[in-house]
Amino acid sequence: xxxxxxxxxxxxxxxxxxxxxxxxxxxxxxxxxxxxxxxxxxxxxxxxxxxxxxxxxxxxxxxxxxxxxxxxxxxxxxxxxxxxxxxxxxxxxxxxxxxxxxxxxxxxxxxxxxxxxxxxxxxxxxxxxxxxxxxxxxxxxxxxxxxxxxxxxxxxxxxxxxxxxxxxxxxxxxxxxxxxxxxxxxxxxxxxxxxxxxxxxxxxxxxxxxxxxxxxxxx
Length: 219
What we know:
Blueprint: H1 4-21, H2 25-28, H3 32-47, H4 59-84, H5 88-100, E1 104-107, E2 110-113, H6 119-131, H7 137-146, H8 151-170, E3 181-182, E4 185-186, H9 187-197, H10 205-216
Antiparallel strand pairs: 1-2, 3-4
């Protein structure tokens, strides 16, 4: 489970990223749960669902989709916290604690037991609940487990992806000046190496990621 410090870091990073994309993002009220639904569909594509052809599950891409989904879940939690005038850290911690014992959920007049569902069915349910504007972290955690992703790795990959997004913006992503390929390799490949050689429990984890990206980026 995420620590209070990790939850606070993630929410702070998400707020900073949203503000960088649009300083008025809270007032804009973007449909973050719609984005969860779309990313969920992309995750199904990476798993494979077509019974009329051979498909292989792409686990790294599935995990990456879950990281993207988590960005949007955090954004929705931040939005709802402003509506209810509550601390987003407290809202997230409460949702995480409630999800620990959750093994099923009721939706649209039916009860769904996570243990009896396959991964694609869980992703379909995540899409459905997102469209219904529900945040279901217990379901998300069950999907994470099926994708061999624990909370420590989610934190590691989330912070890494968030810092990379911020780095891209700082280097001219919006204006088209950013170089996504560095010496024949994509920036994502460098990021994977960086986050796995650093300690995610270090207080300056995100600063060290940014510094390592800066060092690797072509002058």
